[in-house]
Amino acid sequence: MSDKKIRFRLNGLFKIGENDKPITGEHEITLSSGKILFEDCKFDSVRFVPQDNRCSFDLKDVTIGKKFHWEQKQEQRFLGELRFIIEGEEATAINTLPIETYLTSVISSEMSATSSLELLKAHAVISRSWLLSQLNQKGKCKCCDRVKTTEAEDERIRWYDREDHTNFDVCADDHCQRYQGITKVSTKAVITAINETRGETLTYGDEICDARFSKSCGGVAETFENCWEDTPHPYLTKVIDNATEEDTDANDLTVEANAEKWIRSTPDAFCNTTDREVLSQVLNDYDQKTPDFYRWTVEYTQSQLSELIGRRTGIDFGTITELIPVERGVSGRLVKLKIVGDKKSLTIGKELEIRKSLSESHLYSSAFVVDKLTNEKGETIFKLTGAGWGHGVGLCQIGAAVMASKGYNYRQILQHYYKNALLEKLY
């Protein structure tokens, strides 16, 4: 959380300095003349240290889901230390706490705290793996901001990954992992899931797995290299998301005709569910505004699409006349899409760049086909019919929830989504 003024409440006794008198209650900090102002004192940074592990603090007006369609503000409660630092023209709030305490919140924020125990345990393992993998990689990435662009006259390929945060390890939103403090931690199952998997991570060879996950794979999980860096991860491979791991119609979705047939159908898959009880485990209240995650449609008039793509890409294509699939990944997700306008044509990729270009926030996924229609007003309509929600790599959260409801344990869930990975207890 960053702002020029941040309001917070200390629940219990906190100290700023070792010899300072403990404080509690409602407070605020402001950024003034390049310093953090707190109760008439100026700081370059200031720490509020809890005097026992029962102390918590609340942050007011925390923005969650930044730049997504569910963006909103919340009041959130946290355990651990509160620190404020200066970043640019704003003050940033930082929470310092142990990894396992952090994970208790993450699996309650990514999932519902009322989820089944096996689902919570599976997510505890992958969230721990992802975090430790990111910390191990910190500073090692060859591209310092983890945004890589390759441009030619007729092509712009860009992939985005989580750039290293300079002054802290991870942020609290979807950019890293959802972390909403103890706001949503409300069941013994969450604590049990963390305790019973303590120190367990997925590994491949000598490395901790970069365990990616998304809401719904749409029936087939995508490979790592089709979404991010061109470096295959043997444990982030194609997965057909059903009990037999077979679907003849999904054998080769890199072929356009196969992908089109498959996306227009509703094949059997773990994540193909309308079970409200199961979905409530994965979709928090704001996520449940997205009911059509498995197969979905979006429509734009030609003028709407032309304005949207021009604004989102910063390129003047003129009037968009065609959206042409160029390359698809193993899940049918578009890796490259050619945008044809009356002023300019350009092939763009990878999947997130496509999703960002075709939506005000992020299109549900890049696994879609396009139909050009005419409405009753005689306007040209571009209808996108798509599959899944998110990049589709690694664990499918809705699919995993269904697996848990069918009696699969967390080890079986992890084996299904992370081929070739081992489950190891590191501490």
Task: Report what the structure shows.
It contains nine helices and 25 strands. The protein is globular, with a radius of gyration of 23 Å. A hairpin with a 2-residue loop joins strand 3 and strand 4. It is α+β, with helices and mostly antiparallel strands.
Short structural summary:
The chain is an alpha+beta fold. The protein is built from nine helices and 25 strands.
Helix/strand layout:
Layout: E1 2-3, E2 5-15, E3 23-32, E4 35-38, E5 41-43, E6 46-50, E7 56-64, E8 72-79, E9 81-87, E10 90-96, H1 99-110, H2 117-137, E11 147-152, E12 155-160, H3 188-196, E13 200-204, E14 207-208, E15 213-214, E16 220-221, E17 239-240, H4 256-263, H5 276-282, E18 295-301, H6 302-313, E19 320-328, E20 334-341, E21 345-349, H7 351-357, E22 368-374, E23 380-387, E24 395-396, H8 397-405, H9 410-417, E25 422-425
Helix pairs in contact: 1-2, 1-3, 2-3, 2-8, 2-9, 5-8
The main β sheet shows up as: 10 strands, antiparallel
Strand content: 25-35%
Number of strands: 25
Shape: globular
Mean pLDDT: 91
Q: Provide the helix percentage.
A: 10-25%
Tally of helical runs: 9
Please give the radius of gyration in angstroms: 23 Å
Uncertain runs = none
Derived from helix and strand composition plus strand pairing, the structural class reads alpha+beta
Q: Quote the distance from N terminus to C terminus.
A: 31 Å
